[in-house]
Amino acid sequence: MWREIKNVEQLESFLEEIKNFHDSWIYKVELISGTSLNERQGMEISISEGQIIYQSQLISANFELRLKGIDCFHINWNEAQSKEMSAGLIKYEENMFYWYSDDNFEDLNDISWFCCKKLSWRYSS
To answer: How many helices and strands (H and E) does the chain possess?
Structure first.
């Protein structure tokens, strides 16, 4: 069952539940751009959305984030770097959720991050 995060208290509860992403990593990403073709081959714009599956050494089940209304999405993929996170960060500011794969960064290009309008989560197998 998906649990929508609607306020700072629910966000803090989620972060506590998943141990602030400590020793977690992105396992799988699925994105829908929000642009598609209709039956007349015309372009249609809709709300972009995605799902991210995370795995963790500290949590026995995988957990997923469902993003709706994605504004920005960046994956930093460097084969020479380890993929696990020591501490992720999610902020809720100006009606947007901002997720960062590291809570201590100087350049957004050095980390993975996204911002979206709606955020839900659940445990998965």
So the answer is: 1, 9
CA distance 40 to 26: 37
Q: Output the furthest CA–CA distance in the chain (Å, rounded).
A: 49
DSSP summary character for residue 110: G
For residue 27, the tally of other CB atoms under 10 A from its CB is 15
pTM, two decimal places: 0.85
Residue-number span of the structural domain to which 25 is assigned: 3-124
What's the Cα-to-Cα distance from 25 to each of 69, 84, 102, rounded to whole Å? 23, 5, 11
Outline where the chain has alpha helix (H): 8-17
Band (80; pLDDT cuts 50, 70, 90): low
- 41-64 pLDDT tens trace: 988 887 789 999 999 999 889 999
Looking at the 3D structure of the chain, how many domains does it have? Answer: 1
